[in-house]
């Protein structure tokens, strides 16, 4: 992140920042804050993000890009650090589409269609492409930032370094088909694949399913792991993709020389297998394939409940797993918002006492003072070693993440708690007057965003670690969450200005 002419650079450690053993402060960049005088419109911003002019055109032009800066005449143009993700990302666009399916189902259609055309068809190391894999970042190779990333990191384009975009693709496709019987005809729509073949959307789903099954069957425990095949590829190929997001309770980083698995990826894959099974049975008349997928889903469910649960600290789903130097599986025993994603899944449904106990334990953890703050659910509990309230994924609050957890709470009858989380999310927009990528997870009574970048030198891992940075101003995930809340409230006869 390059400083602009308006930034102030110092080498003084802020009072509210702690350094871990082996860390040394490099610099603090104080960015000139951009202020906005009115509460923004979520509808206006989703139009910008999806390239639509009118509400009825959402889903006709393209999927949502990941983020934008505000383009308000009375405010200075946004610096480069607020314009990092103005392209289509697989995971991001799918999450936006699935959150908005009740109001804008065609956005899910055009998103899955575009991602099908970009779906991996071969093995290519520079792109981390694999047959069936859904793209992570659909940046054009001539894009200036793409050229920079290719030069510095060796990435090819489009780049496929994501483990969760593929199951998210299946989930979004299934959700679109479930809107109406007519939508299932989309399964038979044809498109031209990257290798020139004419395929149907059902073919794309089948390739995505094959990719998941291949990963599960080649894994000793039958879980979905990631490991970059590039020396400088994305280390954590999940939504919490910062280098220090996956770590142990003592603060030591997960072992990136072997596979790492994240809890929410497992639950998404579990639901994706069940979604695909239903489509194969009900719409493609392939009962044998459906039965096979249900068997794989049940095996994965068993693995999740066994490998990712700990009874420590009242019981919770750990962040994930890594492996020691001998390949033995180890739990990453830190409490994070990731466990809350299990609530918005079939994983914890039912009245079985074993499941009920785990569901209630997760709810208690999510609503504990260590995870819950004024703005929503912290990405990392405040009593964990690597907690920093302004860290990208180690203490901040991501509004889409909190909204996803709220949907899970509502799914299991915790309506008041879900409404409370939605209220906190809306109050963030009131306070910040943007649609922030994330906000601070500190202990104050008002939401706030980072206005500085803090770089430290990590002596243990011999690299620079950016432990704080400003959020993007118009994050598509955030806009989708706010708009989904707004639409839900309107259906209840409650109207607001967002």
Please tell me about this protein's structure.
This protein folds into two domains: 1-81 and 369-498, no CATH class; 86-93 and 101-366, Glycosyltransferase (Alpha/alpha barrel), CATH 1.50.10.10. The chain is 35% helix and 11% strand. It has helices at 42-50, 90-99, 105-117, 144-153, 165-177, 201-217, 263-282, 287-307, 353-366, 399-411, 415-432, 476-491, and strands spanning 8-10, 23-30, 67-68, 190-192, 198-200, 225-226, 260-262, 309-310, 316-317, 320-323, 329-332, 372-373, 376-377, 452-458, 463-468, 474-475. The strands form six sheets. Strands 1-2-14-15 form a four-stranded antiparallel beta sheet, with no helix packed on it. It has a four-stranded antiparallel beta sheet with strand order 6-7-10-11. It starts with 7 loop residues before the first strand and ends in a 7-residue tail after the last helix.
What shape does the CA trace take?
Answer: globular
Query: In percent terms, what proportion of residues is strand?
Result: 5-15%
The quaternary structure here is: single chain
Per DSSP E runs of 2 or more residues, the count of β-strands stands at 16
Which fold name is given in CATH as the topology of the largest domain?
Glycosyltransferase
Helix content: 25-40%
Major beta sheet, strand line-up: 1-2-14-15
Number of helices: 12
How many discrete domains? Answer: 2
Structural class given helices, strands, pairing? alpha+beta
**H/E element string?**
EEHEHHHHEEHEEHHEEEEHEEHHEEEH
Q: Which parts are unreliable, with pLDDT below 50 for 5 consecutive residues or more?
A: none
Mean pLDDT: 95
Q: How many angstroms separate the termini?
A: 31 Å
Radius of gyration: 22 Å
Task: Based on the coordinates given, report the CATH architecture of the largest domain.
Answer: Alpha/alpha barrel
């Amino acid at each position: 992140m390059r400083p602009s002419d308006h930034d102030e650079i110092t080498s003084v450690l802020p009072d509210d920042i702690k350094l871990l053993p082996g860390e040394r402060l490099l610099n603090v960049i104080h960015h000139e804050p951009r202020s906005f005088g009115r509460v923004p419109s979520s509808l206006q911003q989703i139009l910008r993000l999806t390239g639509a002019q009118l509400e009825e055109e959402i889903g006709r032009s393209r999927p949502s890009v990941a983020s934008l800066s505000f383009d308000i005449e009375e405010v200075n143009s946004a610096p480069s650090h607020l314009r990092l993700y103005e392209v289509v990302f697989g995971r991001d666009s799918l999450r936006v589409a699935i959150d908005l399916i009740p109001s804008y189902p065609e956005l899910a259609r055009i998103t899955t269609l575009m991602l099908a055309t970009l779906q991996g068809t071969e093995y290519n190391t520079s792109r981390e492409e694999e047959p069936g894999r859904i793209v992570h970042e659909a940046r054009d190779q001539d894009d200036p930032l793409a050229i920079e990333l290719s030069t510095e990191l060796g990435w090819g384009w489009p780049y496929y370094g994501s483990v969760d975009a593929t199951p998210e693709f299946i989930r979004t496709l299934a959700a679109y088909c479930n809107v109406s019987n007519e939508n299932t005809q989309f399964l038979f729509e044809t498109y031209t694949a990257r290798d020139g073949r004419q395929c149907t959307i059902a073919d794309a789903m089948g390739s995505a399913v094959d990719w998941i099954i291949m990963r599960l069957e080649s894994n000793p425990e039958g879980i979905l792991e990631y490991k970059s095949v590039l020396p400088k590829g994305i280390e954590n190929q999940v939504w919490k993709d910062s280098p220090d997001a996956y770590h142990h309770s003592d603060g030591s980083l997960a072992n990136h020389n072997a596979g790492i698995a994240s809890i929410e990826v497992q639950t998404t894959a579990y639901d994706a297998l069940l979604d695909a099974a239903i489509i194969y049975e009900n719409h493609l008349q392939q009962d044998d394939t459906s039965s096979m997928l249900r068997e794989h889903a049940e095996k994965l469910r068993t693995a999740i409940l066994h490998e990712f649960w700990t009874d420590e600290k009242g019981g919770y789903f750990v962040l994930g797993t890594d492996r020691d130097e001998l390949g033995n599986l180890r739990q990453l025993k830190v409490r994070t918002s990731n466990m809350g994603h299990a609530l918005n899944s079939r994983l914890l449904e039912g009245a079985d006492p074993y499941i009920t106990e785990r569901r209630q334990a997760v709810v208690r953890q999510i609503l504990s003072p260590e995870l819950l703050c004024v703005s929503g659910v912290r990405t990392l509990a405040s009593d964990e070693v690597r907690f920093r309230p302004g860290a990208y994924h180690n203490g901040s609050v991501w509004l889409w993440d909190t909204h996803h957890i709220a949907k899970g709470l509502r799914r299991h009858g915790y309506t008041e708690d879900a409404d409370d989380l939605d209220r906190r999310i809306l109050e963030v927009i009131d306070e910040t007057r943007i649609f922030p990528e994330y906000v601070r997870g500190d202990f104050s009574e008002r939401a706030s965003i980072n206005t500085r970048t803090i770089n430290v030198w990590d002596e243990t891992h011999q690299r620079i670690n950016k432990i704080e940075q400003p959020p993007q101003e118009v994050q598509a995930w955030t806009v989708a969450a706010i708009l989904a809340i707004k639409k839900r409230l309107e259906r209840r006869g409650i109207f607001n200005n967002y």
